Amino acid sequence: MENFRCFRKPQSARLAPLTLLVGENSTGKTSFLALVRALWRVALQEQVPDFREEPYDLGTFEDVVHNRGGRSKQPADFAAGFEARPNRPLFGSDKYAFKVVFKRRGAFPVPFRRRLEGGGTWIEVETEGNGNHSVNFGMPDISKCSFEERRYPLGDAALNLIPIPFVLFRIGELSRGEQPRFFQAGITDDSPDSAFNVSVGRDDLNKLYKLNGDLEIRSRRGIPYASAPVRSIPRRTYDPTRPRRDPEGGYIPTYLASISHSNPKTWEALKTELEKFGQQAGLFDEISIKSFGDAEGAPFQVQIRKFSGSGKSRQAKGPWRNLIDVGYGVSQTLPVLTELLNPEPAPLFLLQQPEVHLHPSAQAALGSLFCSVAGPERQLIVETHSDYLLDRVRMDVRDKKTDLKPEDVSILYFERDGLEVNIHSLRLDEMGNVLDAPPGYGQFFMDETRRSINL
Question: Which of 309, 341, 373 is a domain's end point?
Answer without folding.
Answer: 341
